[in-house]
Amino acid sequence: MGKQLLHKQIEEKKQVAVKEVVTEDIVTGDQQDFQSKYPRLAASFGSMAGMSTVYPNGSSFLREKMSLIATDKAEMLEEKWKKLEDDEAALMVKRLDLIAEHFKLVVDAMR
User: Fold this and answer.
1) Of 18, 31, 48, 85, which has the fewest beta carbons less than 10 angstroms from its beta carbon?
2) In b/e form, how buried is each residue of 40-74, taking b as 16+ CB within 10 angstroms?
3) How far apart are CA 19 and CA 24, in angstroms?
4) pTM, entire model
5) How do residues 76-89 score in pLDDT, each as one tens digit?
6) Is 89:7 a contact under the CB 8 Å cutoff?
7) Are 15 and 52 in contact, with CB atoms under 8 Å apart?
8) Are 41 and 72 in contact (CB under 8 A)?
């Protein structure tokens, strides 16, 4: 699988996740506007599944109240989530390159 195809698949998954979060019923008015301006920040709730062990209503609390964050802080968080996504995508490419190298060495050894 080529790096370009992998990057495209990762981007498509991100877009689906953003659409799922943005279209949730609990979001209305200013919250909806906030989520359209900061899609990565809105999609970040999907990665906070472990929060429920520390604070059971944490994700829903953050989702409902995130539009209260000041614009400059929201922009900062949005950029941090974007950087994390980019770093994760780059790591996935490295992992796939290593898997391909590993597989090639095994196949070569079998010949």
Assistant:
1) 48
2) bbbbbbeeeeeeeeeeeeebeebbeebbebeeeeb
3) 9
4) 0.56
5) 999 999 999 999 99
6) yes
7) no
8) no
Q: In angstroms, rounded to a whole number, what is the distance separating the alpha carbons of residues 33 and 37?
A: 6
Which residue in 61, 10, 59, 64 sits closest to 35, CA to CA?
Answer: 64
CA–CA separation, 55 and 76 (whole Å): 24
Mean pLDDT by groups of 10 residues along the chain of 111 residues:
62 55 46 78 73 67 80 91 94 97 96 93
Beta strands in 1-111 (DSSP E): none
Helix 29-37, helix 3-22: angle, nearest 10: 170
